[in-house]
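Structure ticket #2291
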Amino acid sequence: MTISTHTRNVIIQFITGGLIVSGTSYLAQYVSPTIASIFWSFPFSLFPIIIFMWLGNTNIGKIREFALSEIFGMGLLLIFIISLIISLYLLPKHNAPLYALGIAVSIWSVCAYLVWKFNLGIIFSKLLKHQVLKLK
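Resolution: structure written out below.
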């Protein structure tokens, strides 16, 4: 039985993602939650995506556009973390983690929708390209 290149790439990407998540979980449980959060904050998932895009002969312009748009992904992650922490401090202790997650996901969803709806990633990347060209 021969596996197609596309299927092989999906399997490799799935395993890579699983290793990142399980590695972070392991660090949080057995080493230190602080070390795990530092590990997770590093954009490990960005590297395999860019490498797989490059290996798949994706146009360099598309890869560059993806990397620029990832800035908004990091910003949305920061919004999620801040809203989660604030919710955990403001809610009563009994069911705080569940409610805090719900609030953080809701805030993240609204922000993600606004980024998508108003094409903020595209607008930002065009502004950034204009500034970079101006510096040259």
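Closing remark: The two ends are 53 Å apart (CA to CA).
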